[in-house]
Design goal:
Cytochrome p450; 5 helices; binds protoporphyrin IX containing FE
């Protein structure tokens, strides 16, 4: 029962927020939607780049250090709380060249969109299917959809754990 509730809680807000953010990313990159429409086989790569590029959490993944650790010169003591920004890692130029460019043609292997290690997202397969369905629907049914406002005028929900647009104004 507890497991079912956790899967629902962890699987609803994450998907709802991520899909909204990913739609904004796609509306800002109409060429990607045209490419997906022309060749649906590109969609899995688009899904992975969306997962790398689109930030989701507004805080960080929380970890409690169980032992004294040296992380590239940064000392972490046992018992200290560590906030890990998966979003920052996904935009690390040492890991991805031109990380702030949305490029579905890139090698996205190693992205942390679903975390890493023991707490790697158990819903990743379902989430990938959801994102794939969203890209397909946008590409097939709404290829002319565009943001109706400049991206920096979008408003985001304040204080939410997951980055969520208040609304996505569109035109076509
Ligand atoms: C686009 C959608 C999703 C994204 C981007 C996402 C991302 C993530 C990330 C980054 C983590 C790791 C957090 C950490 O390391 O602390 C995580 C954990 C988790 N996710 Fe997802 N997730 C998504 C959808 C889902 C769905 C659909 C489910 C369930 C049906 C789900 C269930 C969980 C659970 C239960 C955890 C905790 C795992 C643990 O702590 O061992 N997620 N997710």
């Amino acid at each position: 029962m507890v497991f079912a509730v956790m899967m629902f809680m962890a699987g609803y807000r994450t998907s709802a927020s991520f899909l909204a953010g990913a739609i904004v990313t796609l509306l800002r990159h109409p060429d990607t939607l045209s490419a997906a429409r022309a060749d649906p086989e590109l969609i899995p790569a688009i899904v992975e780049e969306l997962l790398r590029y689109t930030p989701m959490a507004t805080g960080g993944a929380k970890r409690l250090a169980t032992a004294d650790t040296d992380l590239n010169g940064l000392e972490i003591k046992a018992g200290e709380l560590v906030l890990v920004s998966l979003e920052a890692a996904n935009h690390d130029p040492a890991a991805f060249s031109h990380p702030d460019t949305f490029n579905p043609g890139r090698d996205t292997s190693g992205h942390l969109g679903f975390g890493h290690g023991a707490h790697f997202c158990p819903g990743n397969r379902l989430a990938r299917m959801q994102i794939h369905a969203m890209v397909t629907a946008l590409a097939d049914h709404s290829p002319a959809l565009r943001l109706a406002v400049p991206p920096h005028d979008l408003r985001w929900v304040n204080g939410a754990a997951f980055r969520t647009p208040q609304a996505i104004p569109v035109t076509w």
